[in-house]
Fold each of these.
Amino acid sequence: MPTPVKVLVPTGALGAGCPEDAFQRGVSLGPDALAVDAGSTDSGPYYLGAAVSKMTDAATKADLRQLMLARDKLNVPLIVGSCGTSGTNAGVDWMARLCEEIAVEEGLTATVALVYSEQTAAGLAPYLARGAITPLPPMDDLTQGRLDECEHIVGLLGYEPLAAAIEAGADIVLAGRTTDTAVIAAVPLMRGLPAGASWHAAKTAECGGLCTVQTRRGGVMMTIDDEGFDVEPLAADNACTPFTISSHLLYENADPYRLTEPGVVLDAKGATYAALDDRSVRVTGSRAELKPYTMKLEGSGAAGFRTMVFTAVADPKIMDRIGDWLSRLEAFLREGIGKVLKVAPADYQLDLRPYGWNALDPRHAPTERPPLEVGLMVLVTAATQTRATEIAKYCNPYLLHFPLNLDDPLPSFAFPFSPAEVALGAQYEFKLNHVVHLDDPCELAVTRTFIAGRGEFHAAA
């Protein structure tokens, strides 16, 4: 029977922090592995398209230092997934640079495996040609042209390339884009523990303390065994309950019982959740079904340049008929952009977002009670920054004075800053929501190693 495995998950995102007292309590419990996710698509396509991290060097380095010091003390594997937010090769190299700096500063040495998951349109072309790339709803079949539109493409790794790196001797694994759960499930699965318990535990802990009562008090310790798994908060004054644990299967998941991972589907219909005490929960009965191995692809490509103008409106007459005013303003602006600037409708996008009045869900009917004030964000997107800013500047005077009716006295609104136009730079959009079918879970991963603390790290070409 396999030996139980303890996995310490300090936080849901590297750089978000784990209180030191909670973290050190977790270290004192003797984990067999340290695992943390460092990326997401939650903040949109920019970070993948531009291949930059949404987290700062300082915040990421603070969390990584905490983990590296603990790893050195415990002599257990440390796995970081989706490095640099989007898991590009540049993101992995960025994390490796921080790892090298910490090793030098703390006098540490460790074997580091860099597991890259970035793909190229040319490299995926043979898979596309033989029908090995299929769409996920609501996307259409993929074309080579669509692949070519992507600035960066990443594949979401399963646990296998991570486990292979550890089995080859890595102390620290810094991986490209992975599923959120793969980093947590890797060590339990490679040590022979059941897939159902391992993947369910990983899903539960993917967001650190989000499965606890006090979600900002640090992460959790997962103990996976041959029958199930236990969940315990790292902070002594925090707690898990059967409700907080069972409900996490609904987080970013449409099915409350089933979760699809590369090569496997978690089935938690038969799972039971029982309180071990007033702060820990035991889960049993999770199962896993094998399926053909697929890797999800994420791609982001250029979508022009954007300039923003923001104005604040509190005129009672306009607030009483805000929908009419917005419609008239947009029509007026579009007519002027065409006649005065000679810009065709197909050559720009104009987006009016009235925060304070149905901006987040414009499908809703206008509220019966008019708002007291609205913050109107106007976004202009065009092929160049110059053109986007030119259109935004044309809009400027009408975002300061535009009446409800043409014969009304001019109202005055408020720009919160000057200049009113803010260039937002290059924009990106997601291009892919597809999976590629693989014969080998590791065939699209590339791994290289270096010894941190010896000056061996060099960014990939």
Amino acid sequence: MSLEEFFEPESMAVVGASKTVGKVGNTVLKNLEEKFNGKIYPVNPKYDEINGLECYESVENIEEVPDNVVIAVPAKIANKVVKQCVELEVPTITMLTSGYEEIGERGEELQEELEGYLEDSSTRMIGPNCLGIWDGHSGIDSMFLPGYKIEEPSKGGIALISQSGAVGSAVLDRAASEGVGISKFVSYGNQLDVSETELIEYLEKDENTDAVAVYMEGAKDGRNFLEKTREISKEMPVVVLKAGKTEKGSEAAESHTGSLAGNYRVYRGAFSQAGVVEAEKNEELIDYAKTLAKLEKPGGNRVAVVTNGGGFGVLSTDSIEKTSLELAEFSEETTEKLEESMKDYGNVSNPLDLIGDATPEDYKKALDVISEAEEVDMILVISLMQTEQMGSEFVDILEDIKNNSDKPVVGSTLGGDYTELHKTYLEEAGIPMFSYPEEAVKSLEKLFRYHEWKDKRS
């Protein structure tokens, strides 16, 4: 059965809906009321109405079968609700309730009971022990996070799925603050029914998604994950942050979502075979995903660096030398064009230092030449926005370069509020932006290595 009703339902019920601020059922209902255009059915025997919406004693009393039921009641009650949903043939359940396999033997019994209800039924479940779902395109927000505490991301091409609600929500919040567009977010918790592999398969066919970022503690079926992602990676990038790499970390994963995290060396080898791009740190998950989602295949591994701060050029060079990338050597033709088009900078070389008084127009002149250079495959633009000469027109200039060049372009800039504002503008213009050049270089290497893997299998 399709997972479509999770993301594009026409009607939703919230079991455990509440008038009490701070309750999970109150937060979920409020989020849906603010964003969802379909029918909403609060379910709680304590109330006749909530916020002007008729409140139902149980899902059995609703006049229609909802496309999705969000469950936010304690585990013992939740199991009875799931049984009712299965009998009603509710298409999808988002199970926020915790207290299952992740807490040990007592919870395992309850989870086995859930499995029994779902077995051979047409009802699909995400969870239990999950944070919920967010879809910027359909208006779904079943997360139990109040809107004033988490920034809503703009619509974009990255789908984020996370076994941990905490990690996922933090990454989602960071993406929103940096102007990184998100298509969908799913916290899938214990993955009793719907697995990370099924979600990735669904997202690969989603017209709004260009790359998937995954926080994973343990795959539900490692062999199936490997087989499916090997095929999916040929069409769409999959970036994974694997947790539970150590013995103690694996134990922590089991107590968190009931996952068997497994041998990390096995996972790492499987990722490499399947073309999965691995992130080592939290921040790399979105860094790599946005780079792979926004940029096309580079012609090779040669990078040109353009900066108005010489020190950043040196740091970039060190970073490039530590990777499989190379610092491009400007040809005699490129060097002559750069010398002709710009004021006297002395030695024209790569990295190209435009020095501290460079203007956005100086960047344009240099980038016009470099974007046409056959010996350059990728471009890293580093901008010190704090100088007097650098203004908002730099955003338009870099966007034009990116749109009119067949070379991948990334940017790096570091600073306070003014810098962060312009970094967000550039991100929204489709240019992957980074605070540090080292991060940009690592992301370009992932772009190159991913397409290198694809080429070997085409």
Amino acid sequence: MSHPVILVAELTIREAARRRIFLAIILLSLLYVAVFGLGFGFLIQEVAREEAAQPATETTPQAAMLVPPIMTTLGIYGLNLMAGGAALFLGAGTLAGEVASGLMQVVAARPLRRGDIVVGKWLGLLVIATLYMAGTFALLLLIVWVLSGYVPPLPLPAVGLLVLEMALLLAIALLGSALFSTVTNGIIIFMLYGAAWIGGFIEQIGAALRSDLMVNLGIVVSLLVPSDILWRAASFYLQPSWLLLMQNAAATGTGLPFTASTPTAPAMLIWAGLYTVAALGVAIAVFSHRDL
């Protein structure tokens, strides 16, 4: 007999797969990858024509060398935003929706601990998010490789960190679902997700302007919801060493928009991991005492 957590995870996966929104997310993601591939292919051709007519000097890197890593990183950044939004959307009403419909009363009446229900739903959604992220990530890299021959230097650590980001966002969504109604939770978690993005942006602008105040403000906001920290950690592994050296040698000392040109401090990654565990733990505690 399956462990209760595994049983709830299996049921969560089946339920999510039957929802029309899940199919819509898949189709929209495939459309995004297709549009990215089409635009990337046209850009590669255009750059090749221009450089054939006007070769670069010895001190200027060729655009044909810059375009693949930059566009790949930005393409995965867009994919990361879509995946994060999808994870929050799927998790927003996981608990609250079933409580409101009365279904949770039937589920909780079985010999299942409420903690098993929370962990099982988080695990089931994480399996879906992992397959989604890994599949679309690999498809995007395949398109880039076919069109340009470029492969990011360390894709496995990058996708691993993006999966950890999905785990974090799902834990936050379940915590909100244990506390609030589906609509209220959806508004709150998407505002927090946006705040995390803005925090990282403020930090990068502060670094460019050499403003310690903006940098510290951005770090504080990012620590409140460390999803953007995990994206930036992943982005470092998507860029080749020569591109990172170019960015660090620039006058501003900053990297590409919304990316990191230096490794993320291990303490930040530990914080993100502990944050995920804590959010899931609080969700279990809150839901265990919630009136169904």
